[in-house]
């Protein structure tokens, strides 16, 4: 009996020791997961910051051997904005997956943020912008959007679904940040993660 009691005490002590180690590992794992989330959010912000001067233009038909910068200049002219060569750092068509409908978008990176913001502002002022405004025979809508990194693009798509589900009236992007508002007069809520959508 004494030997069994001693053995039981020893086993109990070991179990307590192992349980303590398990709890420490669980706490460490939780802390590491939180750190990963923070690092992922920082990485997304850095990636989005690199696009701070960048716009994407959709709806402009593709032409053989086209000069995309000249096309962007025409879009600018339709918005009463003069775009000079030295204002643009890069300009090209966006890769389009085979089978995707519509022309590939155009990505344009301005040298300064002011160029991007000016174009966004002028697009808001001119509510209607179509291909006929750049002297093309068809009349198709032209869209100008802020360029979002893949993570934010996916989050925006999820936000559109949530907006419809919950009956939110407003969803918009400003300076690479996604916002939602239930109705006119309400304060806009920034959507940083999927958790923010779940908390709406």
Description:
The protein is α+β, with helices and mostly antiparallel strands. Helices cover 47% and strands 16% of the residues. It has five helices and seven strands. The strands form two sheets. Strands 2-3-1-4 form a four-stranded antiparallel sheet, covered by helices on one side. The chain has a three-stranded antiparallel sheet with strand order 5-6-7. The protein is elongated. The termini are far apart.
> Could you tell me the mean pLDDT?
90
**H and E string:** HEHEEHEHEEEH
Strand content: 15-25%
Radius of gyration: 27 Å
- Largest sheet, order of strands side by side? 2-3-1-4
Please tally the helical runs, counting DSSP H or I stretches of 4 or more residues. 5
* Biggest sheet record: 4 strands, antiparallel
The chain-level structural class is alpha+beta
Residue ranges: pLDDT <50 for 5 or more in a row? none
Helix content: 40-55%
Q: What would you call the shape?
A: elongated
Tell me the span between the first and last alpha carbons.
62 Å
What is the number of beta strands? 7
Helices and strands in order:
Layout: H1 2-49, E1 54-58, H2 68-78, E2 88-93, E3 106-110, H3 113-125, E4 143-146, H4 150-166, E5 170-174, E6 177-181, E7 189-191, H5 194-198
Q: Main traits of this protein?
A:
200 residues, four-stranded antiparallel beta sheet, alpha+beta, three-stranded antiparallel beta sheet, elongated
What is the compact description of this entry?
The chain has 200 residues and is of the alpha+beta class. The chain has five helices and seven strands, in the order H-E-H-E-E-H-E-H-E-E-E-H. 16% of the residues are buried.
């Amino acid at each position: 009996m004494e030997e069994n009691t001693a053995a039981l005490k020893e086993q109990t002590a070991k179990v307590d020791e192992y349980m303590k180690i398990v709890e420490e590992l669980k706490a460490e794992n939780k802390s590491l997961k939180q750190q990963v989330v923070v690092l992922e959010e920082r990485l997304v912000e850095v990636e989005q910051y690199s696009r701070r001067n960048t716009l994407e233009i959709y709806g402009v038909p593709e032409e053989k051997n086209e000069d995309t910068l000249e096309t962007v200049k025409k879009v600018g002219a339709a918005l009463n904005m003069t775009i000079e060569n030295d204002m643009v750092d890069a300009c090209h068509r966006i890769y389009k997956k085979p089978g995707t409908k519509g022309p590939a978008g155009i990505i344009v990176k301005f040298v300064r943020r002011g160029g991007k913001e000016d174009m966004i502002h002028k697009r808001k002022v001119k509510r209607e912008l179509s291909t006929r405004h750049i002297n093309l025979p068809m009349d198709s809508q032209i869209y100008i959007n802020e360029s979002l990194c893949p993570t934010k693009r996916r989050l925006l798509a999820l936000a559109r679904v949530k907006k419809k589900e919950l009956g939110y009236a407003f969803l918009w992007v400003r300076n690479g940040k996604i916002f939602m508002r239930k109705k006119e007069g309400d304060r806009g809520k920034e959507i940083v993660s999927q958790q923010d959508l779940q908390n709406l």
